[in-house]
Amino acid sequence: MKKWVWFTLLAILVFAVLLRLVPLTQFMIWGSDTGEYYYLTTHLEEENKMVEDYNGWGLGYPSFPGMFYLNVEVSELTGLDPFYTLLILTPTLSAFSVIFVFMLTRRFGGSEGAGLVAAAIVAVAMPVVYATSHAMPGTLGDLLALVCILAFLQSYRNQMYFPLLALCTLALLITHHLSTFIFLIAIITMVIFREILKRPNITFERLKIDLIYIFILLNLILVYWLLYAVPFRERVIMRSFGTAGLMYVIAMIYVGFAVFVTLMFMLRKYSTYTYQPTEHSTRRHMIYFIIAVSICLLAILIASMGLLPTLDITPDPLVFIYLLPLAVLFSLGILGPNESLRFTNGIYMLAWISSIGIALLLTMILGSHSIIIYRYAQYAMEPWAISIGLGTMMIIGTYCSGVRSDGDRKTNHSASRFFAVVFIIAILILGTAATAYPPRSVMSGFQEGITDSEMDGVLWCRSNIEAGSTVATDHRLSSMLFGFAGLNASWDYVEKTFYEEDFEDVRDELNRVSLPSGRKQIDYVMLSDELREGVALVQWKQAEPMSEEAAAKFQDNPFYVVYDSGDVQIYQIDWKYDID
Questions:
Q1: Which of 485, 473, 488, 565 is nearest to 527 (CA)?
Q2: β-bridge partners, 541
Q3: pLDDT tens, residue by residue, 22-40
Q4: 105 in Cβ contact with 386 (< 8 Å)
Q5: Can you tell me the distance from the alpha carbon of 536 to that of 345, in angstroms, rounded to the nearest whole number?
Q6: Nearest CA among 146, 171, 160 for reference residue 69
Q7: Maximum distance among all alpha carbons in the chain?
Q8: Which residues have CB under 8 Å from 67's CB, separation 6+?
Q9: Residue 315, φ and ψ in degrees, nearest 5
Q10: Per residue in 20-38, is it b (16+ CB within 10 Å) or e — as a string?
């Protein structure tokens, strides 16, 4: 590669790292589940094993310990406190996804320019940046999935990539379930598309290797999820399917794999179909782009009206402003799939995009709250960024060189057109970077950050509240109280407490609530100004603010304040007080 490409890619990487660490300049902690991750990391460091009897909200977290092992090892090697490695390491590593997206773009046949555009979009796009800016297994799983896809495709050229593929596959399996599932669907779809379109030319022996690898991966997933990750099996899989349904699903998986293998052999033997990409047409490209922009704006409108499937969320109308630069960039990707098929390996990009669409469609049909549809956004953005890169370079190669639909060339003004297109793309990318962290009103009232004052309150609880006590608060602060103060917390289970205006309406909820740690009586209530602006409970519902009347009930018996820093208050409940 040319030196300027290396320097540009390095600049994109540095910018991606800095952008993912921006929230730590505004909040003490960024990431609503950080308390649980801290608890699991420190327990692993102290006991040299994952916790077995886990009472946190994410019961499946100990079953996927990849991120926690990584944090502990880096902490021990560097001497850094696990708290800081947890906040910094995983988001920093996630920024390296721009390198792998660049390499995948080149692997699919795109130019260096297309790779740089794709890398820049992954560096700044809100669906990726917001999701990977805090430590969580999905952040590391996303990166590992990219490495696995690259190693899988590179192994066609060089068998030396097989050890890397095997190692990264195992690391992915023990790190994050959704990333593993998406990787599995992606490579299955890649093989199917390749065999249907007869591109590229892969030997029959290599097809058999692909099928064996997919079969091994499929069995590893089933064994790991069903036999080892017992809490994940019971909490997520069994709740979705039940025992009978699970047996049916397993049977269908193996039947489906048998059909898949048969189909691949039949396509290899009988299919003669080949796809010929359409010729370049400036007019047709413009029509496609306008249609894509219209669809994106319609999707944003649907979201702002609270009509997203499986979600009870209505974003602020400002979502239009914050998503507009990304929507325009996103629409450029509509030109990428046809362009990708001009390259021998471009079929893999199209298959990758399609695989995520298939997974998303299945989730919408199931209507599951366990796998929320917006979690697919970060995974979809990466292959689509490659499509945007290809589409951008196609525009530069046609419009800027004056290629018309009839094939004639008009080279005058090509330089000015080139700089105009580059300038517009740069503005859109910078605009996307500026909107990578929308305000909480756009994020349906949710706030990932924990302020200094809130953490002061959490640390006060650690020193002044008896171990085993239970505190009612929102999901964010529940995680902090559990992880940093060692207390039971209410997580998502006391919704009435924050919205009802009279104690009698919440008495039963506070007196006996079912939590991951069992049936508990609430002993304390923790409020903050951030919580009052939006009570973050379950992820698929709006984080509605508390009313003044609902907050006022905590000023009367049986509540009495034991901590007040101005914007954080902690109330103890005197259950012996006769409110009547």
A1: 473
A2: 312
A3: 999 999 999 999 999 999 9
A4: yes
A5: 44
A6: 171
A7: 89
A8: 37, 90, 135, 136, 137, 139, 140, 175
A9: -65, 160
A10: bbebbeebbbbbbbbbbbb
**Token representation of residue 137:** 């297994």
Give 536-558 pLDDT, tens digit per residue: 887 767 788 999 999 999 999 89
Tokens 């953490």 sit at which residue? Answer: 455
Structure tokens at 309: 């499937």
Q: Would you say 61 and 140 are in contact if contact means Cβ atoms under 8 Å apart?
A: no
> Alpha helix locations (H) across 399-526?
414-434, 452-464, 475-485, 495-499, 507-511
Q: What mean pLDDT is predicted for residues 4-33?
A: 95
* Of 12, 6, 9, nearest in space to 429 by CA: 12
Tokens 């999820």 sit on residue? 225
Single-letter amino acid, residue 235: R
Are 528 and 434 in contact by the 8 Å Cβ rule? The answer is no
CA distance 573 to 561: 9
| Cα–Cα distance, 79 to 533 (Å, whole number) | 38
Using CB atoms within 10 A of its CB, is residue 423 exposed (0-12), middle (13-18) or buried (19+)? exposed
Residue 516 and residue 558 in contact, taking contact as beta carbons nearer than 8 Å: no
Percent of the chain at pLDDT exceeding 70: 90
Collapse the DSSP code of 519 into the 3-class scheme (helix H, G, I; strand E, B; otherwise coil) and give the result: strand
Quick one: tokens of 275?
Answer: 């796809």
Cβ-contact 473, 492 below 8 angstroms: no
Find, among 463, 485, 464, the residue nearest to 473 by Cα: 485
Query: Are the CB atoms for 525 and 464 separated by under 8 Å?
Result: no
Q: Which two tokens stand for residue 310?
A: 């499986």
CA 414 → CA 60, 293, 396, 423, 496, distances in Å?
56, 25, 9, 14, 64
- β-strand pairing of 568-573 with 524-528: antiparallel
Average pLDDT (113-124) is 96
CA distance 178 to 168: 15
Alpha-helical segments (H) within 155-281: 161-173, 177-197, 204-223, 230-232, 238-270
> Count of residues for the chain?
580
Tokens of 50: 């994952």
Residue 186 has pLDDT above 50, yes or no: yes
CA atoms within 13 A on the CB side of 314: 3
State how far the alpha carbon of 469 is from the alpha carbons of 174, 488, 523, 564, 567, in Å.
33, 6, 6, 19, 23
Rounded Cα gap, residues 550 and 569, in angstroms: 14
Burial tier of 548 (Cβ tally within 10 Å: 0-12, 13-18, 19+): exposed
If pLDDT is split at 50, 70 and 90, which confidence band does 231 have?
Answer: confident
